[in-house]
């Protein structure tokens, strides 16, 4: 069992560099006219030629590095960015996760609401946040170092260059049980963007199974796993509920895979989840929960 798009953070320079490399641009408004649609293909997403072209203009790909990438990998990254735009997000009632929260403020840190509310629209906010966190997105072929994290995307900060590195594992993930799809990939982009705020991981414990002792976990919900979980929760509430009598945008299998990813994030990679949610997940096998469980516990009933 292996998480599909975790992250290794390599701090090559002081965090000072991060602060100096902050730009804010409304990329969303540059692409929304052609990229605001629901992709037909739930696994790989589907990029229209117009949206693909426009996103390629705003995403800072290191093109030289992508020449070595397997076919389709770069499109999978681009499609994940489209998913951030196309599928509506909504705040969960009471700022909760699985309908639980430790405090009146809710489960997700209020910091996250500043991220999600920086622009008038939630999708606009998260898409701009992710894009603005990186100066370049490069591909790295398999090697000894990333082999250990073969299914992971990596972010490295060096000098003034904020860089996200994508490995082969970003495409399909190593674990068929995990139902890797476009939304899980989009969640990985959000995860890595949070590293762009200078937040690194700490060593996991035995709950993370093969990642025990590996610097892949967060102390609490404030880190990359928490923001990724918040995004997935927002996705469930924006696209996993019936709106205006229309069917849900997300299929049951998508809801299941999103719920499983949230469950795994909390149970394996957040070292100190709050008591209520720890209690809920104590005897839950995240890889076994079904859409009904997710719908019920997130309160997505039609
Ligand atoms: Zn990470």
Descriptive labels:
two-stranded antiparallel ribbon; 302 residues; disordered N terminus; binds zinc ion
Count all strands and give the number.
6
Largest sheet: 4 strands, mixed
**Quaternary structure of the protein:** single chain
- The radius of gyration computed from the alpha-carbon positions, rounded to a whole number of angstroms, is 18 Å
Bound molecules: zinc ion
Work out the count of structural domains: 1
State the strand order across the main sheet: 1-3-4-2
How far is the first residue's CA from the last residue's CA? 33 Å
Average the pLDDT over all residues and give the rounded result: 85
Order of helices and strands: EHHHHHHHEHEEHHEEHHHH
Low-confidence stretches: 1-22, 174-178
Q: How many helices?
A: 14
Helical amount among residues, as a percent range? Answer: 40-55%
Structural class: alpha/beta
The fraction of residues in strands falls at 5-15%
* Global geometry: globular
Task: Describe it.
The N terminus is likely disordered. Strand 3 and strand 4 form a beta hairpin. Helices cover 43% and strands 9% of the residues. It has one domain. It is of the alpha/beta class and 302 residues long. Helix 3 crosses helix 5 and helix 5 runs antiparallel to helix 7.
Topology:
Blueprint: E1 7-11, H1 16-20, H2 27-35, H3 49-58, H4 63-66, H5 73-86, H6 110-116, H7 122-132, E2 136-139, H8 144-147, E3 153-158, E4 161-166, H9 169-172, H10 182-195, E5 202-203, E6 215-217, H11 224-239, H12 252-269, H13 275-281, H14 291-298
Parallel strand pairs: 1-3, 2-4
Antiparallel strand pairs: 3-4, 5-6
Zinc ion (ZN) binds next to helix 10.
């Amino acid at each position: 069992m292996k998480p599909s798009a975790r992250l290794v953070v390599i701090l090559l320079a002081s965090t000072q560099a991060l602060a100096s490399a902050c730009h804010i641009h409304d990329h969303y408004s540059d692409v929304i006219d052609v990229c605001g649609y629901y992709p037909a293909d739930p696994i790989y997403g589907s990029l229209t030629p117009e949206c693909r072209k426009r996103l390629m203009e705003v995403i800072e790909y290191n093109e030289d590095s992508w020449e070595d990438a397997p076919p389709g990998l770069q499109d999978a990254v681009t499609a994940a960015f489209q998913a951030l735009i196309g599928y509506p997000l909504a705040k969960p009632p009471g700022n909760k996760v699985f309908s639980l929260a430790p405090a009146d403020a809710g489960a997700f840190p209020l910091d996250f609401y500043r991220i999600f509310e920086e622009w008038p629209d939630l999708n606009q906010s998260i898409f701009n946040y992710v894009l603005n966190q990186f100066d370049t997105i490069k591909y790295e072929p398999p090697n000894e170092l990333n082999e250990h994290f073969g299914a992971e995307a990596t972010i490295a900060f060096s000098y003034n260059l904020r860089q996200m590195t994508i490995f082969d594992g970003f495409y399909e993930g190593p674990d068929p049980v995990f139902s890797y799809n476009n939304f899980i990939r989009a969640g990985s982009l959000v995860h890595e963007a949070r590293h762009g705020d200078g937040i690194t991981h700490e060593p996991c414990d035995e709950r993370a199974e093969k990642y025990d002792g590996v610097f892949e976990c967060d102390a609490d919900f404030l880190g990359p796993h928490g923001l990724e979980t918040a995004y997935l929760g927002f996705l469930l509430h924006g696209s996993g509920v019936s709106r205006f009598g229309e069917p849900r945008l997300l299929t049951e299998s998508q809801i299941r895979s999103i719920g499983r990813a949230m469950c795994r994030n909390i149970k394996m990679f957040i070292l100190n989840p709050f008591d209520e949610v720890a209690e809920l997940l104590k005897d839950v096998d995240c890889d076994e929960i079904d859409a009904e469980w997710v719908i019920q516990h997130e309160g997505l009933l039609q």
